[in-house]
């Protein structure tokens, strides 16, 4: 489903990704672990289409479509969803308004009819209930005054509502207490299905106790340096990243 | 050193000629008009070396003085009334002013409300005319003085003590014509003790015609009265529109004024507000959307002459194309105006490389126990917010529109309690954003 070939990316003349290769299959949950500065967040932004990065080489294919030739909103309509590490606060835009605008923009881009308001509200309420999101939160400005845990749950709510085919979770566990971690993980797990792929980016093995990955990849200095099954995460937890840090500097 | 006489511009000469021809035809006290025109002509059209007009060089912008529009024909009135504004749907007490002439007064007025055509009031020497010019700061202002010299019609409105006027009073200033013309309208509103009223203004006119409206609304608001004022500038694409609001507030007054600029080649909206009694609250807010080579100026003078008053000013400007926005806000706190609380904010978003925003906040504080603050920001839409919205599927223009709408809606949300009016004005903002494509 997602295939990244020899991806080379820089920002302001600083090379961040150095010929990264990665394949995530349909229905697979792939975890990426790695030390700070290894390029994990850059990878998530480049897949989602953030403009600050300069792609020097390589390709990112989603079901054969070259994402690098698409605008961020086109990528979203094609099925890409990035759950942000730091979800943004948007003063003055009610959460409901934002959710409806997003969903209908994607449907429009795919040539589907816009959802009626009652249908939309039904879907939002169902997704919100699963994630223990209070209804009054949906009336407030998006993420404004939300706690860290509420913001992350709101990201998962968006994911559930937009039904993407490929989900990227960028350090979704950061800033979460145990209860919030459980709620968020359950939200993700209910979305696991045969047609959907996940890329779970994390520093810590802890999240992977809740969202059990099919594959684990270790990233260092802008490329995948080791891949394995879920046991690789436990190995990293025990030994740390020392073996991989600066392994191929210069 | 000898006085150096400035050479008159074509527009200044034109205005002098127009005044010589029309002054005997205009109603009311000729001496007042003579005095007003003298105040104007002593200094002529203001230019960029006059601090108050630093960013709006009227001498350069007003090339020719257009002739004042005559009394409209039935066909003119029909054409003008076809200009359907978003506030027309609001159930209101409506007066229609076409090309500077009041052509339709409200059919029936609720008890306690008096509306007299200005032309009639000037002719008969209406006692309320003595309340004109209640805010001294406006007196020598060029736009105000020109209006005082040339005012042809408008309305004198009195809201009797204790009257709560349920429906808004809507003044529709409509313009029509195929060649440039000028208008000078004056509205004087006296809101007596404990009365409350909502006043709407719509200003609209033809596109592609360089007409020159210069309107003044003066309000005298007595103790414990309440005024909500909403103004929509939807003048035609080539108009040069000058407008002045003066308000003199008594004690314990609640006063809110909102101005939406959604058109017009050149506009300058001036607000002169004077707190004359203790414990009053005023909110002066506005939203401006400009593109192409449009120029929109908002200039405020908030005069805290009495203690314990609160003023809130919030202005939002969106600048696209090569347009120029101007915000000048001055808060004066007199030495006796202790416990003044004044806060002023102007925020602008520039959508293009060539757009300009000039922000000039000024505080003159002569009292020691006051809270005053001002802020001015000018920037682009936040790239991170745009990316976040786009990553959820919103195309760039839609993402921009969502952020701009929330940016522009803040002054509406803060000041306007009448939901239908707020919705109608928000609709104007949406329309402008959609027209961006």
Automatic annotation (TrEMBL), chain A:
Annotated family: Belongs to the ABC transporter superfamily. Ycf16 family.
Keyword Transmembrane included in the entry's annotation: no
Domain ABC transporter: 2-246
Keyword Cell wall biogenesis/degradation: no
Record's protein name: Fe-S cluster assembly ATPase SufC
Domain of life: Bacteria
CDD domains: ABC_FeS_Assembly
One MF term in the entry's GO annotations: ATP binding
Keywords: ATP-binding, Nucleotide-binding
Naturally occurring in which organism (per UniProt): Salinarimonas soli
InterPro entries hit by this protein: AAA+_ATPase (IPR003593), ABC_transporter-like_ATP-bd (IPR003439), ABC_transporter-like_CS (IPR017871), FeS-cluster_ATPase_SufC (IPR010230), P-loop_NTPase (IPR027417)
TrEMBL record, chain B:
Biological process, per Gene Ontology: iron-sulfur cluster assembly
Residue ranges annotated for the SUF system FeS cluster assembly SufBD core domain, each copy included: 181-407
InterPro entries with a match to the protein in the record: Fe-S_cluster_assembly_SufBD, SUF_FeS_clus_asmbl_SufBD_core, SUF_FeS_clus_asmbl_SufBD_sf, SUF_FeS_clus_asmbl_SufD, SufBD_N
Positions of the SUF system FeS cluster assembly SufBD N-terminal domain: 31-170
Pfam families listed in its UniProt record: SUFBD_core, SufBD_N
Top-level taxonomic group: Bacteria
Family: Belongs to the iron-sulfur cluster assembly SufBD family.
PANTHER family for this protein: PROTEIN ABCI7, CHLOROPLASTIC (PTHR43575:SF1)
Official protein name in the record: Fe-S cluster assembly protein SufD
Organism: Salinarimonas soli
């Amino acid at each position: 489903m997602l295939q990244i070939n020899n991806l080379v990316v820089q920002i302001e003349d600083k090379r961040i990704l150095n010929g990264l290769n990665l394949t995530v299959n349909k229905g697979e949950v792939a975890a990426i672990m790695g030390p700070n500065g290894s390029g994990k967040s850059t990878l998530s932004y480049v897949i989602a289409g953030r403009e600050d990065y300069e792609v020097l080489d390589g390709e990112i294919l989603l079901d054969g479509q070259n994402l690098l030739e698409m605008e961020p909103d086109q990528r979203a309509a094609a099925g890409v969803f990035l759950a942000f590490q730091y979800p943004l606060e948007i003063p003055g835009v009610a959460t409901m308004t934002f959710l409806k605008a997003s969903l209908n923009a994607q449907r429009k881009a795919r040539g589907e009819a816009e959802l009626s308001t009652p249908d939309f509200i039904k879907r939002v309420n169902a997704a919100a209930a699963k994630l223990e999101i209070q209804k009054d939160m949906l009336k407030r400005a998006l993420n404004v005054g939300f706690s860290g845990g509420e913001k992350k749950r709101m990201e998962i709510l968006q994911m559930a509502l937009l039904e993407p085919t490929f989900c990227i979770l960028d350090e979704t566990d950061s800033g979460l207490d145990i209860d919030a971690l459980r709620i968020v993980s359950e939200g993700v797990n209910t979305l696991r299905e045969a047609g959907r792929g996940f890329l779970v980016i994390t520093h810590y093995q802890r999240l992977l106790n809740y969202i059990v990955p099919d594959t684990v990849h270790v990233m260092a200095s802008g490329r995948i340096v080791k891949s394995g099954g879920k046991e690789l995460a436990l190995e990293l937890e025990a030994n740390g990243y020392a073996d991989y840090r600066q392994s191929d500097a210069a | 050193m000898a006085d150096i006489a400035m050479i008159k511009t074509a527009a200044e000469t034109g205005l002098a000629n127009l005044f010589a021809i029309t002054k005997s035809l205009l109603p009311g006290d000729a001496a007042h008009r003579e005095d007003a025109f003298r105040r104007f002509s002593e200094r002529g059209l203001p230019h960029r070396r006059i601090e108050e007009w630093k960013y709006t060089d009227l001498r350069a912008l007003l090339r020719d003085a257009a002739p004042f529009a005559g009394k409209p024909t039935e066909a003119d009135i029909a054409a003008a009334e076809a200009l359907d504004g978003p506030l027309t749907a609001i159930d209101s007490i409506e007066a229609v002013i076409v090309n500077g002439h009041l052509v339709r007064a409200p059919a029936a007025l609720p008890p306690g409300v008096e509306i007299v055509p200005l032309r009639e009031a000037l002719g008969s020497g209406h006692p309320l005319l003595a309340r004109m010019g209640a805010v001294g700061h406006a007196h020598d202002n060029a736009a105000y003085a020109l209006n005082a010299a040339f005012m042809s019609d408008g309305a004198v409105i009195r809201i009797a003590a204790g009257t709560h006027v349920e429906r808004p009073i809507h003044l529709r200033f409509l313009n029509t014509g195929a060649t440039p013309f000028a208008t000078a309208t004056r509205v004087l509103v006296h809101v007596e003790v404990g009365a409350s009223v909502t006043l709407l203004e719509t200003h609209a006119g033809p596109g592609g015609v360089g007409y020159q409206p210069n309107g003044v609304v003066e309000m005298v608001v007595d103790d414990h009265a309440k005024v909500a004022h909403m103004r929509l500038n939807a003048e035609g694409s080539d108009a040069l529109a000058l407008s002045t609001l003066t308000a003199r507030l008594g004690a314990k007054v609640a006063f809110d004024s909102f101005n939406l600029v959604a058109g017009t080649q050149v506009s300058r909206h001036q607000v002169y507000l004077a707190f004359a009694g203790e414990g009053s609250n005023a909110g002066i807010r506005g939203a401006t959307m400009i593109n192409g080579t449009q120029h929109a100026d908002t200039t405020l003078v908030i005069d805290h002459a009495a203690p314990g008053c609160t003023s809130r000013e919030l202005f939002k400007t969106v600048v696209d194309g090569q347009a120029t926005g101007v915000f000048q806000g001055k808060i004066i706190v007199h030495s006796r105006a202790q416990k003044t609380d004044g806060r002023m904010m102007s925020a602008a978003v520039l959508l293009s490389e060539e757009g300009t925003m000039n922000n000039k906040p000024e505080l003159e504080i002569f009292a020691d126990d006051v809270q005053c603050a001002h802020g001015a920001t000018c920037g682009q839409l936040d790239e991170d917010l745009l990316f976040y919205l786009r990553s959820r599927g919103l195309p760039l223009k839609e993402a921009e529109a969502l952020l701009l709408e929330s940016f522009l809606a803040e002054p509406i949300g803060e000041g306007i309690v009448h939901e239908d009016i707020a919705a109608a004005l928000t609709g104007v903002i949406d329309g402008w954003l959609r027209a961006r494509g």
